[in-house]
Amino acid sequence: MTSESIINLVLIEDEKQIRRFLSAALTNEGIIVHEAETGKQGLIECATRKPDIVIVDLGLPDISGIEVIQEVRSWSEVPIIVLSARTQEQEKVGALDAGADDYLTKPFGTAELIARIKAHLRRRQPSTGSNDHLFHFGDVNVDFSLRTVSKNGEAVHLSPIEYRLLSVLARNAGKVLTHRQLLNDVWGPNHSESNHYLRIYMANLRQKLEHSPAQPKHFLTETGVGYRLVVGDVLAS
Question: Name one GO molecular function term (predicted).
Fold first, then answer.
């Protein structure tokens, strides 16, 4: 983390050993950690501390992690990362649809968690330059003002839907987007269950923009959940 700014983080985790371990690791990165062992205590911490990022476990003793996410989302856009031992895909989808930005399944490495935190904090930083319309990842450059895409300096033609899908992913770079979120944003609410559309157009984007479409480094699948556009050091699940 940079020394110019102090990062405040609320950690909502009922397992004491995990909470203390994560708190120590994050503090070592220069992050100020405010701990909570219940959902209700976590909501109080979020309301009073005004954190830069929130980490919440789904299985809390009083209210569910999803309820915490929904409540925080009703008044804040703070990045929320979910931690849980639960591996059911539907719970991941539920947490993300409730407003979480990311999801890590226990056990996970602290390096991965810290990389995710840094990535989400970068997404939240206000842009100060005049190049807000430019977006870059790998060998790809996108100019949203001109609606142009190039790879290795060569123009790439995208269909209107491919371009719209890329735009949604780029606006949320590093964030896991569920199938439903992507379908709503790209095709509209009447297609929220049409996952096959998404698979086809994601394959098209990989074919046109990835160096190795069969082993993508940027357009990543979150199995059973959705997709993530990886830029820089964002780590995949």
Answer: identical protein binding
- Residues 179, 118, single domain; the answer is no
Closest CA to 179 of 189, 190, 169, 194: 194
Tell me the pLDDT tens digit for each residue of 129-154: 556 688 999 999 999 888 999 999 99
Let me know whether 14 and 60 are in one domain.
yes
Residues 138 and 103 in one domain: no
